[in-house]
Amino acid sequence: MLRFFVVLGLTLASGAASAADIPEYRLVIQNHVYQPTELKVPADTKFKLVIENRDATPEEFESNEFNREKIVLPNSSASVFIGPLKHGSYRFFGDFHQDTAQGRLIVD
Amino acid sequence: MPGVALLVFREVLEAALIISIVCAATRGVSRRGLYVVGGIGLGLAGASLVALGAGVIAGLASGSGQELLNAGVLLAAVAMIGWHVVWMSRHARELARHMNAVGQAVKAGSSSLTLLLAVVALAVLREGSEVVLFLYSMAMGGIGAGGLAGGIALGVSGGALLGSALYYGLLRIPMKHFFGVTNVMLVLLAAGLASTAARFLLQANRLPALGEQLWDTSWLFSNGSLAGKTLGILVGYDASPSGIQLVSYAITLLVLLGGMRWVGRPAPVRDERVVAAAPLQAPS
Predict the structure, then answer these.
(1) To probe the interface with A, which of B6, B136, B205, B206 has the most A CB atoms within 10 Å?
(2) What topology does it adopt in the membrane (chain B) (predicted)?
(3) Which end of chain A has less neighbouring CB within 10 Å, N or C?
């Protein structure tokens, strides 16, 4: 039993890799629009996405296709860890301004 | 206004489905309405506090405060639902010979009513804080008071309507099976919440994925669709889950079902009728 927990602990520790080994990508929200609207990221790679909100209003970065949601407060940044994702194009949006805040992750 | 109505509807629906299940599970308990309304009130107050403190929360735990708070709230709800169903199964057996099904449930239900009130409060808090931030964002964006109020009214009534539809649908289940069904629904709800908690921890890189995108059933129900969202709350549906979500789901199912079975097992008495009545019962 003890061994099980030791193994589990090691698996958890190694699985949640330290943030330093993880590539970082950036998105900017300005006037409720994502820049860039299409962001290229590598396939089968876990990465960190930093979203900077330059608007005076809060936004929620959200995707149903890669299952992430995070509130990004006015004039601040937030980050989420994503993937590894398979090849493809994945839609994301700003939940609070869906008519303009639309974008795609191009996983290649 | 349609945008406001839609977002409010989505968030209210998630909370309303949970409240409906809790209401059904406490059917017949006296002063239940008071507890549920109290839970909603507490949840709304909590939601406003969370929204006000969003800046502080966002900065905690090196930027993972939001995820840790969400996961914490979800896991607290899982623990409370778990306690309730295990408690129910213990007392259902004790009282079985003396009372009818309703009486049992009332007795069992009232003692964990406070826990279920907390589940209602937590559900409202989680969905509500997002609504508050959204409405703030809309108000800043210069939407008129009329559009805002109309959107809120439409969204809240739509969500509440679907929630009550579930509640009144559940009431049609025959009494003999009623609490069996609500218990199963509570267990599935808890397992789904645990899976969502795991997703938040994964998003914050606090848990290993154990495999991303294990399958994809978004062609059937996407996570964003009404059906997908509803199933997401009721049974923990996720169109493209990660391994850690499945593990959390399975652990919750096993612990709750195992706990119910173990606590509700027949006492070791030499009662011929009990033995004769359940000759095929699997060993627990």
Answers:
(1) B205
(2) Multi-pass membrane protein
(3) N
